[in-house]
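Possible regression after last week's pipeline update?

I re-ran a chain I had predicted before the update to compare outputs. Posting the input and the new output here so someone can diff against the archived version. Not blocking, just want to make sure nothing changed silently.
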Amino acid sequence: MDVSTAVAERFSARAFKPDPVSGETVRAILEAAARAPSGGNLQPWKVHAVAGDVLAEFKAKVAARLGSPDEAQYAVYPANLWEPFRTRRFQVGEDLYGALEIPREDKIGRLRQFARNAEFFGAPVGLFFSIDRNLGPPQWSDLGMYMQTVMLLATERGLATCAQEFWSAYGKLAADFLGLPDDHMVFSGMALGVADEAAPVNAWRSRRDDFQVWGELRGF
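New output (post-update):
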């Protein structure tokens, strides 16, 4: 599979088959992704992969705390989101729940679907990406590029992923479980496994604006 195909085929899977993914495969993906760009070669990422009984133990701890999140370590979105970002976020939510046939008035149904984040959407592997609290936005950018590289390498191997900033709301719980030092914080999680292609939630794709909305070529 070439890079262009991996980029086109990658999507945020929200339903996974229980098929296990070997530790060797997970390590190979994580190690290969370390060639991602890194300003000054700081390599600011720290990654934990959990599966099997360890993942089950963690999910049990989260289930006991669901609905009582930790104090947020950072804001996933700015307050009072403005246009065009507000509309884009609204639209992707409507498309997601539309694919699941969960109407806006079914708030319980929407909350139930959102809570599936805590189960990694049934994926057999959960990844956690953390970073030193004293690092800045450029290093957060590096971490994001590392995560994107992980997702593309997973796609190349026929696996699916879903990046989950959901875990920023349970960052302390995750950090304690993983044994992170106090100077590190969980930035994001990620579900990894084989996508359930029969699940309706995996049949839709989020929209992207046309190039002319956000791009410009000069001097060509």
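Follow-up from reviewer: compared with the archived run. The radius of gyration is 18 Å. Marking as no regression found.
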